[in-house]
Batch of 4 targets.
Target 1
Amino acid sequence: MNVIEIKNLTKYYGKSRGIIDVSFNVAEGEIFGFIGPNGAGKSTAIRTLLALIYPTSGSAAIFGKDCIKYAPEIAKEVGYLPSEVFYYEKMKVIDLLNYAASFYKKDCRKRIKELAEIMDLDLKRRIDDLSFGNKKKVGIVQGLLHEPKLIILDEPTSGLDPLMQQKFFDLLLAENQKGATILLSSHVLSEVQRLCSRVAIIKEGKIIRLEKISDLTEHNYKKIKIKTKEQIEKDYFDLGGTNKLEVEGQKVSFLFKGDLNLILKKIADVEILNIWIEEPSLEEIFIHYYEKES
Amino acid sequence: MSMNIFRYELKAYRKSAIIWACAMTLLAVVYIFLFKGLGSDIENFQAFLNNLPEVIKKGFNILVDSISTLEGFYSFVFSFVLLCGAIQAMNLGTDIVSKEVRAKTADFLLTKPVSRINILTSKLLAALSALVITNSIYLGLTVLTAVAVVEAFNLKIFFLISLTMFFVQLIFLALGFLISVMAGKIESVISVSLSTVFGFYILGSLGSFMGEARIRYFSPFRYFDAAYIIKHAAYETSFVVIGIVFIIAALAGSCLIYLKKDIQAV
């Protein structure tokens, strides 16, 4: 079953482009990544899903229901963490969380305590005394306190230190284990890589690629670095499937996609001092792909 | 309506509603005591006022004929109380919706399982309750003071004049609502509300100065003419109707705009 179904979603702000003809589905239990640079339209897509803005054309459904028409009903099972969190400044953290909880027809007190403990959040402080990172923690607790079936995160990790980021990711994975579907938007590809099983790559308002993370990283590319004994011809490794070939003295590096036996034979023919074969980061593939598109 | 939003909003405005009520009550009570203190000197005072130029009397709502009664004397200070009340209501109406945009909390509220119409209704009812609190305190204390201090006066007329504040406040509340849903982001509520309220106040006074009766229709401050109320112990039906029509239209318009509005990212 698909938790999110987006069909030909288009949004213009007056004449300026938001998103154009975006379509993708997110299956139940999936952790889905949504990547692209700032201004590509990630937030526009997410805000439409949340019925904060209305689409110019196309439609989106969550839990099989139209996300605009049934927004209040859908919201019962959705947790949202915006990239920048803002709350009623004069409130105490606990009062804000209780206010947030009062919108859901369940007792969230225990969950608030648990989450605050995990995220190391002081519930007695006033919102306006909190640092950016601590406000973000309030946002995380606020988004998860009603144990939503769908968690939507828009650039979630900005402002969190690496330790907190880790705790937060563990928390998300635990929620996912319990059955929650997660939609995560980010321009930091490593975090998408760490969490997601599938990604949609968005550029200038359009989805340019929809793929499994495993396909992107494992099956497509190897990142190969070699240190040779002698300097080699610049185009020695320039065969089909090689990308981003860089030769700098004895150091050669490139991305390879294709039959690994071919490239290994090629490597075996030169005398080498050292070799590194790695999974390329999504960033490297992504930037390469982006360049190709433009 | 959502009780939790209603409770939250009412709590946020309760204190200011009480403070406004106290300030306005103080103003009125001082005048009631002043009236009592003047005693029989009121006739000399009346003679003095009679010599004032006609424009000033009209512009400042001085009802020379009835100034020797509490109702007439009170209606002079009441025009300032009304001004305060209008500012309070306009502030409230403008702030209660626009603060979500200003404090960037709209995302928080609008991603909760409540419909937009529900949010707006809850906020409207909370604002309305705040005004009811203010008016109850004001009416209760001034009427009580009047009864205790002044022996003979027309309670019904006194009450009718005082009650006009609630109507005028409702008009400004609705106007504030409409302005705040139409505006993208209001940086300073007080500057919006003060300029609007004083604009209408001056417009109303200008109408009186110039003797232009039609201007009355454009200033809520002139919808309830004290001289008329004192004379007839009633409101002018046409203005009551205009007021109600405006309130309904402004609120319905606010809802329609708010339902269709894109909530922009911060």
Target 2
Amino acid sequence: MARKVLGNDPFRRGAADRPDAPEAPKPAAPPGKQPRPVTPELQVPRAPKLTPMPEAQRRAPVAHAGSPKVKGESTDPKAIPVPPPRAPVAPRPVKPSAAKPRAHAGAPSVPFEPVPHASAPSATPIGSAPRPHPGSPSVPFEATPHDGTPAATPIGSAPRPHAGSPSVPFEPATHPGAPEVPFEAVPHPSAPTASPARPPFRPSPPVYVPPAADALPRERALAPTPPATVSGAIKGLWRALRTASGLPTRATEVDAWGKDAELARLLRPLGEVLYEKYWRVHTEGVEHVPRGPCLLVANHAGALPLDGPVLHLALKRERPELADARWLLEDQVFHAPFVGLLANRLGAVRASPENALKLLSEGRPVIVFPEGFHGLSKSFSERYQLRRFGRGGYLKIAIRAGVPVVPVAIVGGEESMPLLAKVPGSFLGVEYLPVTLPPLPARWFLRFAPPIDFAGAPAVPEDDLAWIERTNVAVRDQIEAMLGALLAQRPKVF
Amino acid sequence: MRVGVTGITSDLGRGLLPLLEADSRVERITGFDVAEAPGGLSKLETVSLDLTRPGSDDELTAALKAARVDALMHLAFVNSRVHGAAFAHELEVIGSMHVLAAAQATGLRRLVVPSWTALYGARRNGPALYTEDQPLLGAGVRFVTDRVEVERQVESFAERNPATHVVVLRFAPIVGPNADNPITRLLRTRFVPTVLGFDPLWQVIDERDAARALHLALDCRAAGPFNIVCEDPLPFSVLVQLSGGRAVPMPGPVLRSTIRLLETTGVASVPVPLLDFLRYSWLGDGTRAARELKFRPNFPAATAVGGLR
């Protein structure tokens, strides 16, 4: 069984094909706290937890899910997008309280019943519990044919491996940050992310004492962001093009990390339009990002990594009081001509422990993608399957710098820039040239989990390598669970 | 305080001498050089010395003892265009060996040696800001490799002679109307080739700031290496633009094969490894100098590079 994290993905037939074994609830504990048996390889499927579905049930959704789902769009302009019906899955005893709200989930006007199972969050595994009953015909889905739905064109409908690839069931109980609150379909700046329905997260002890205000990096006073105009966008793009080619741009405001404040200012209106109107980025839990330095750990995706800039812009919009964040980029992209240069001028920093520690010492949030290049180079058919989280270097940095780690799940990057093929590119000094499409209007969802409590961490990371490995796997599992939940709740890809 | 200066006619020497002349704590300046000394300095007395000659260490020892020099500024390095790499090697590496031998023989109290941030090398896997404890991995160019050799000698000298206060100042490329080094020659050309799709960050330092840093090293408490850099790095293309030239981006493979062709035909000798400096950023972290040397540059990079022509 493939790792079924694809949720409502129109590219994927039989999207709801995921492990259905009901899991025993686990006592909630932050990942670092509860030592779990360390598996020798990091990606070993947790075999005992898997219950393979009968073949018939697994095939059934394939025919079902493909057709009406992609067209499911209400004609009512005011109606919020409707979640596609979950394809029926294996019958399974579901708690009535949990099953009932979800049965209505297809009702056009109330797409996401908020908090259907908030009272017993840890009792229902995220990926598996709230599904309509398989036999229930009550999926009142308005199958209004919609021609323009881009989702109807299967771009990369390669058959996904059904068997063989490891399938890691979600373990909601171990992840306190795992989402319980389905997000609203309409992105709202003041979204009820801090709703009381969220299980009370055990507040982590203050692992970090924010420095005095004057210790934070001083941002240069800049002219206000220009209004979003077509000419402004063209001007910004022209400058970005010149910058990427290495032509002089009068960029005298470049800081030591390579960020060109003027270029960022010119491109900001265009970025805002893309963010709001094109990708319709929905963020959830941004308030978890602590003030002062922290490591934001996210999944990495897309032929060209757009996740860094989008996450950066999300922080800029939702948490303007934070210091300017930077994201770390792996060598293969950072040293690629044009792309690496442009990314550097926009705020990317070459991923290395020295750079990360220095950035943190400046009081900035630092965005890291522990999957690195492996996350980018996976093909579109493997989207949202997390790679190994490196060697846990980000944990060593977090411990050394004494800063919290905030897991972030990003959905949308894979469909925005799908990696369709690789062309040899050694003549340019890159591993391959990605064949992709211009950024597609996929919806983006960012979910921030509460900061991880590192009590019990070794004082010196090298002292307890097993702890690092264990925690690394736990953080990866948490992000995987968040991804799975986001994908399951995603109303539409586009 | 009696100060000895080798290479008084070098760029740094010419910048430093007026500062020493104006400093009331300096009683006497003893200058060592093969060339004619600049006039108009009352404290300066010159000794003719050729550091490339065998036995020059004995001459230097005798002169240092006679003048009872407290601090020696070793500025005899070749930055101008050289026609023989062998001569430059003799002066820089072997000359420094003679100077260190003399310093050990006289029990010198303080030794100041200039160096370059380029010695860290422009590396693919280097940090964004090189601190002083980073290894010196610059290679491929005589200009760099000889100075790496000098720094190794100085470092082992400092280890073996703890009584001598050794200060190494690693300068960003020194620019200014009087400066003449490979970087200023590159920036003074009309069309500067750059690598298409790359635009590394560079630092420069004004020659007046560089002289001031040398002067500060005369009585600083801290020892060891210091990065002497400007606070605002600039993309190389902007640096070229501000210096009045024109950046011509060329595709990397084309540039590389052109350089190889020029070198093979003997038209020009530009080593290919130099291209790394046009691809990867090489920035020195100047916080140690600001903290322990109390050095902050007076001239921003744009001003410094604007005075090139």
Target 3
Amino acid sequence: MRNRHLFLFVMVLLAAFLAVGCGARQLTKGEIDQFDGISAKIAKAERMGAKECAPKELANAKVELDYARHEASEPWETAQPFIKTADKAADDLLAKTTPCWEAKQVKPAPLVKLSANPDTIEAGKCATLSWSSTNASSASIDQGIGSMDPSGTRQVCPASTTIYTITATGDGGSRTASTTIIVNPPPPPLPEPVKEAPPAAPKVIDRLTLHINFDTAKSDIRKAAIPELEKAVAFVKKYPNSKISVEGYTDNQGSDKYNLGLSDRRAQAVKKYLVDKGDVKADRITAMGKGKANPVGDNKTEKGRFENRRVEVLILGE
Amino acid sequence: MIGIIRDANLFKRRGTMKRPWVVLMAIVLIAGLAAGCATANAIQNARESLDKAKAAGAEAKTPFEYYAAKGYLNKASLEAEEGDCKAANTFTKESKAYSAKALEKAGGGTK
């Protein structure tokens, strides 16, 4: 009987031992969260290609996670050391996977724009180049400009039409963009006003000086002057094809304005005589008064003043 | 075990233990304990599978499967040492499964 009781006691003890051993400890919420966090890290690493990038670390993290789950379910174990080990294994996995994954990522190619304002200038003027880029770490512009920031502006003053090309470089490669600044030649300078050369003084091929007695301050032809005028008619008829200039002069008595007017009227009177009486075409004759210019005698003497009061008939060459 | 059965018969002969279900219970318990002893063999089998996978170049060709098999085998050994036969068996099975995958992927066959 005593043995029987002993046997039953052992059986109960064993059953109790097995019951305790088989019973799983309930995980706390904190532990569940910790396991979820570790699982998430491993899942993230797997999405990033951990199987290729860090296979040993992936295997270790999974094993440690399973082991920690098992240990955490044991009633007699303290879960935290195993959870920490699993968490560290997951961190190591991510640490090794991340750079590997990043290296495999296709980096976006840089984008770059380049423009000129204005895009057409006159020679000697300047324009502003503007550029911007994305996914670029550096940029350079040709035509001697060199390295620049990935975005910016710069004034350029090309002497002739120039194509500017910018090259933007980034992790994803290089891209270029170009713009052209058209340089127009400066407008031609305004033509300087052509100074009309004074008409060359026609060559005088012959001349006749008439001393016609006009009434004082008059220009009417007196009968006494007709012989002198007939000499003029005979003179000009020697040159039927030549132009004729009739110039009147006075002495220095009176004002310049007066003398100019008087000498002009007297020259016109001689011209009229030549046309009316000498049948000389009017368009062959020019008549003008020159006042007291070109004196041929001394105005201080009567004789000199007489010599100065004259009409000259000039035969002009071609 | 035979000795235990003999002991049970002894109890019966002596009249101190007449109920046969008690004997059966003892047999079941002893069988359960014996099953725990089989863990050592399972671990040895798993280790051999891992060695085969390694010989096939699995460490380089299929590192994830190889190191998973190795990791679970280590844990199985730990649990066996601690006397947790159930956990040891679980980890041993995992190890063998990964070794088989590693061996297959490494071109060494499924066995």
Target 4
Amino acid sequence: MKKRTVRTIPQTRTPVQELDPTIRARNFEEVNCGYSESEALRESERCLFCPDPKCIEGCPVSINIPQFIQKIGEKNFRGAYDTITATNLLPAVCGRVCPQENQCEGVCTVGENLEPVAIGRLERFVGDLAIKNHWVNKPYIHPSLFKIGIIGSGPSGMACAADMAKAGCDVTVFEAFHQPGGVLRYGIPDFRLPNTVVDAEVEKLKDLGVKFECNTLAGRLFTIEQMIEELGFHAVFIGTGAGYPSMLNIPGDSLNGVLSANELLTRCNLMKAREFPKVDTPLPLGRHVVVVGAGNTAMDALRVSKRLGAETVTCVYRRSKTECPARAEEVHHAEQEGIEFHWLTNPIEVLDDGNGNVRAIRCIRMDLGEPDDSGRRRPVPIQGSEFELETDEVVYAIGTNANPIIGQTSKLTLNKRGYIETDSNLMTSIAGVFAGGDIVTGAATVIEAMGAGRKAARGMKAYLGIRDIGPIPTDGSLFGIALSEHNFTRVRIAE
Amino acid sequence: MNSIAPGRSGPQPFEILRREDYSDVTYMLEVHHPMMARAAKPGQFVIVMSHANGERIPLTIADFNREKGTITLVIQAVGKSTMEMQQTLTAGSMLHGLAGPMGIPTHLSDARKVICVGGGLGVAPVYPQARAMKQKGAYVIGVLGFRNKDLVFWEDKFRAICDELLICTDDGSAGIKGMVTDGIKQAIEKHKDIEEVIAIGPPVMMKASANATRVAKIKTMVSLNPIMVDGTGMCGGCRVKVGEKVKFACVDGPDFDGHEVDFDDLMVRLRRYKEEERVATERWSETCRMSEPGLGELSKINEMAFPNRN
Ligand SMILES: Cc1cc2nc3c(=O)[nH]c(=O)nc-3n(C[C@H](O)[C@H](O)[C@H](O)COP(=O)(O)OP(=O)(O)OC[C@H]3O[C@@H](n4cnc5c(N)ncnc54)[C@H](O)[C@@H]3O)c2cc1C
Ligand SMILES: Cc1cc2nc3c(=O)[nH]c(=O)nc-3n(C[C@H](O)[C@H](O)[C@H](O)COP(=O)(O)OP(=O)(O)OC[C@H]3O[C@@H](n4cnc5c(N)ncnc54)[C@H](O)[C@@H]3O)c2cc1C
Ligand code: SF4
Ligand code: SF4
Ligand code: FES
């Protein structure tokens, strides 16, 4: 193959089809339609196959990106899938929700001169193909006698479960809700990540022999200590996430019509309240909705509110657009759908209509001052710039804290802010008990949570003395013998 | 180990072993869940989903039996979900979801003399606390309030564990004529050495009880019932104001110091979904009227409500 250079590759990023903003803002269909095969092939031609691929460093789980893109180019889609799943269990999910512009794509060499290679879209293309064709990488699993308990079925728990199942362990995932998936299920709405994708990923784990026990509130139904001492688990992983939502602590916080984004999203996504009264869970329906915050959660709350039929939906954020933590694509989509943004605006009071309901929110304009600890310029209020925004529903999406239940019921060492402390192998202060994901790091990303789940699995295997033979090479051969000749690669496990 | 039986996955069915009706609106369900029965402590609650499209509703664990492996729920039919459950659930039915035990168990104090107050539906949840205090050797005075004689339930259960029992009815058809606050006042006058009051019931009743003990400075614990979704500290819907601080009742409670709670705030917040609840209830009673269920029809409704049973 002729060596590609920035000048010979297709100069523009292959656009992806999206639903029309005016139509999609009224339904929950997925916005981004994903690449077709020809689009994926074209985009794959934009990768330079750098000898020193920066993109791999940018990916928290170090997917061999040039290799999988090369396989797409060769139309070896199954091979591309194998390359990705050597490190990333959830390509269909991560391809959709990773903040790629800060990760793999943010450091792609092509991005120095042109738009970077659309790594996420390519990854999603492969992930969707795998779901459609029911590809499962079922390795030969040599059964071990170990019993593993996983608490929480979010991305960290799922990743840890998959690795331990592949190591031959008897794995059970305990989930407090009645359906598995964590934030992927209750938080991220269908128009960004359809529930069918989450279902498919859960099914793949079941295929590996992982058992899911929903309706199980670990810590309270049984404690972590009891899992080890009485229930016979040889090791435990805690991936309970950082769900506990923050409130602003301004006057009017407890008025009816003020709620957390988590509550809005859970009612809408998990409880399907948008079909009320067909389903029993009611939904707060505002005509003029104000969402405070500008992270991914805020974007989801904004776009959900729009889809539920609000006349106006407004985002209020105290910093400027440059500092906003949401993915660029999400902000762009929100703008397209007619959501208004009040950058550099801070709420100071929620106002009462006299009956305990929200009437308006009083805000103050902000200016950017000196950089603070996070390196971002600190917003400072502009005296006398207060104004009122009329609203009947205020949604707080200003971050979350550690969920307290496990801390309340076990002797685990927590840090000052209530997150679980771990060593470098993600083992907690109790031997054999590991933790990872948002409950250790604070709210982060899906791919980081997944990476943590895998890292904890590695620690767990070392702790249990399960020898990790490392990922099976996917470059075609092992000891000089073609992989297909080995009988251990994708042998089906006994039913 | 009902909920962790190997090889099963997805939502677990939880079987109702026994049902009893205490009045037109109050019914009791005894549900099989050995692990929960083992873990449950006084003051805790569960979240129930009766069918796949149902609401997650919080209900106090009114009793538990570790030998039989059951927990007892006493439910008042007040709206769509609780009325529908009253119609459809019988011995042998399965709940779609049952999670818990949730909340911080009641901190059983070393008080030597306590009044346990239950108003209306609060009668059931105060029972395990009264029993636990009795087992700790305290002198237990029960004060139970009902609207009238026909609604009285669990009198015998309370007699068995209380040193004194005062029943109050609005119309005087049983016990004292008056409200639980009258019972509390009587008990406080008779006993000068009461160290604690535990009051559970509708917010107005808990507010009144807390006011009745404020002057005498008797510690008064209440159990709050704000609207909940997850019960795991994730949504913030259950937030309540306690001593100017915001607490999440499902993980920081549900028990709080009654003298610190902002009951007016709680009562306003409980009205949040009133309109939606009305719509749901009306729509539901209409479908019921249309089919005019006789006893035979009940199983049909049951089938409609639980399409994925078995
Ligand atoms: C609305 C929203 C949008 C987001 N968008 C993005 C995005 O676009 N891209 C991105 O990369 N990241 C996004 N994130 C962040 C990302 O979803 C999280 O970082 C990630 O899901 C964390 O995974 P986790 O496994 O640690 O926990 P979670 O996904 O939070 O899962 C924890 C699970 O544990 C369960 N649980 C908790 N306590 C118990 C218990 N005691 N017993 C049993 N089960 C329990 C919970 O019910 C939950 O299901 C978003 C987050 C939110 C809230
Ligand atoms: C910790 C806790 C323990 C509880 N224990 C019991 C119990 O042991 N027995 C019992 O009968 N009820 C109990 N409740 C109240 C019970 O959850 C509600 O009555 C039930 O959810 C109402 O649902 P519905 O659809 O039938 O009525 P709806 O039509 O939804 O509402 C009817 C009335 O109930 C109130 N309500 C609605 N949803 C809730 C909710 N989630 N929590 C509290 N009130 C609500 C509304 O303000 C309204 O006035 C408890 C609530 C909490 C928070
Ligand atoms: S997992 Fe996320 S960061 Fe890694 S390559 Fe895929 S999209 Fe990029
Ligand atoms: S940095 Fe960009 S161009 Fe280079 S290998 Fe990675 S994706 Fe391809
Ligand atoms: S019910 Fe959701 S936080 Fe308490």
